[in-house]
Amino acid sequence: xxxxxxxxxxxxxxxxxxxxxxxxxxxxxxxxxxxxxxxxxxxxxxxxxxxxxxxxxxxxxxxxxxxxxxxxxxxxxxxxx
Length: 81
Fold this sequence. Notes:
The protein has 2 domains: 1-39, no CATH class; 46-81. 67% of the residues lie in helices and 0% in strands. The protein has 3 helices and no strands. The longest helix is centred in the C-terminal third of the chain and has 36 residues, at 42-77. The radius of gyration is 24 Å and the shape is rod-shaped.
C-alpha cells in the first residue's frame, strides 16, 4: 500500500485507521511500522506537487503568449520596402 500511495501520488486520509485494519486482518506490515508517523504529510506533498505542476504550466503559457506578442509587435513595426 505504501508503494502504491508513493507511486501514484495519492493520499490516504486516515493512515492510522488503514494500518490498524491491516494489522487486524494479518497483512504483513514489517516495513510499514516506521511509516505510522511519516516525517511529511502525504496529502501536503500531493497538494504541493499539484501546485508546482500547475504553476509550471501557467509560466509556460505566459511565456508563450509573451513570445507571440513580441513576434506580432515586431512584424507590425516592420516598414514595407
